Amino acid sequence: MAFINPKTKEVQTKIVYYGPGRGGKTTNLEYIYKKFNQRIKTDMVVIKTHGDRTLFFDFLPFDIGKIKGYDIKIQLYTVPGQVKYDATRKLVLRGVDGIVFVADSLVVRREKNILSLKNLRDNLSLYKKNISDMPLVLQYNKRDLAEQGIPLLPLQTLEQDLNSQLKVPSFEASALSGTNVAQTMKKIVLMTVASLQKQLI
Amino acid sequence: MFGQKELDGIEEILQKDFMDLGVHSVVFIDMAGNIIANLDNGVMGHDIYSLAALAAGNFGAVSSMAKIIGEDEFSLLFHKGEKENMHFSKVMTDFLLVIIFGNEVSLGFLRLKVAEAIEKLKLILEPLQVLD
Ligand SMILES: Nc1nc2c(ncn2[C@@H]2O[C@H](COP(=O)(O)OP(=O)(O)O)[C@@H](O)[C@H]2O)c(=O)[nH]1
Ligand SMILES: [Mg+2]
Questions:
Q1: Rounded Cα–Cα distance for residues A55 and A82 (Å)
Q2: B32–A57: do the CB atoms touch at under 8 Å?
Q3: Does B6 touch chain A (CB under 8 A)?
Q4: Where are the extended beta strands (E) located within A6-156?
Q5: Which of A150, A151, B104, B125 is deepest in the core (most CB within 10 A)?
Q6: Least confident span in A37-51, A129-143, A182-196
């Protein structure tokens, strides 16, 4: 749940990047951190293991300016994608206001995407939240690999696997080159803030 | 939802019970990592948002560990540094009180203060939870 502070006129909201391990969640945040560094006053927090995998979460606070006189502070988080870190994913989802699901476009990751989305659904229900009521954006990442002749899942397959019921906005992206990374983030921020607006007087 | 009155009340407790005691900063957060109130002595300038995110995650992790070994939870945590120390305590189910203090403040006395402050905070927080 976002926290609205009428005293300091500040809103804090939590947006979580979810998805299978190695899909590019951390790379999304790293790109945003580089691209918008004038708006980000602090360092990005990363908690990694030796193998450079996200152990706990990444965290990036981000100011987007004022809406209705309130300073909007977005807190971007990633979860560790590996199956064994489910307990940590549950912790990071606590109080989530919006989600970006980063799917891996590699053909070999098809099953992993589907399982991770199911895992998101299950973990949200622990907090009595329904994925369909949650601001959610899908990102089909690593599209740049097509140029190297690496087999990628066609867009229709990804939409069918992941978005046939949800019908949420989706973006083809390359977190590595930055293609559609900012657009994905802007979309989820807009949707999340819109869902909070009614609470702002 | 917190109103101006509740937030003023919380800040007053944090000021009187902790800042006046000479601690360096006090941060009152929820378990999602949001900052509800934050006071400091103006010297530290910590990155308070990252601190809150990590404190909430850390406390959540410790609570999960407690369950694994059959404890309901560890209601407080203490990290000792060379100059700075941190004390975390859970307030009801959803909130966390984080205090950063130097060696001039006695841990025993701080603990007493924390216990008192939690009771006072509950008086403000409990009516809000019924409304939610
Ligand atoms: N070619 C390509 N590689 C990517 C892209 N996004 C991430 N990667 C790489 O995929 C690996 C895993 O990325 P990471 O962000 O750590 O994944 P996470 O586990 O979801 O956080 C890293 O080696 C990244 O450099 C992308 O858009 N294109
Ligand atoms: Mg990662």
A1: 9
A2: no
A3: no
A4: 10-18, 45-48, 54-67, 70-78, 98-104, 136-141
A5: B125
A6: A37-51
Segment holding B78, helix H or strand E: strand B76-80
The rounded mean pLDDT for chain B is: 91
pTM of the model: 0.89
Q: What is the whole-number distance in angstroms between the Cα of residue A27 and the centre of ligand 1?
A: 6
3-state secondary structure of A164: coil
Q: Give the CATH architecture of domain B4-131.
A: 2-Layer Sandwich (3.30)
CB-ligand 1 contact for A200 (6 Å cutoff): no
Residue from the list B1, B3, B33 with its beta carbon closest to the beta carbon of A75 = B33
DSSP 3-state of B73: coil
Closest residue in chain B to residue A7, using alpha carbons only: B4
**Which residue in the set B8, B50, B60 is minimally distant from A91, CB to CB?**
B60
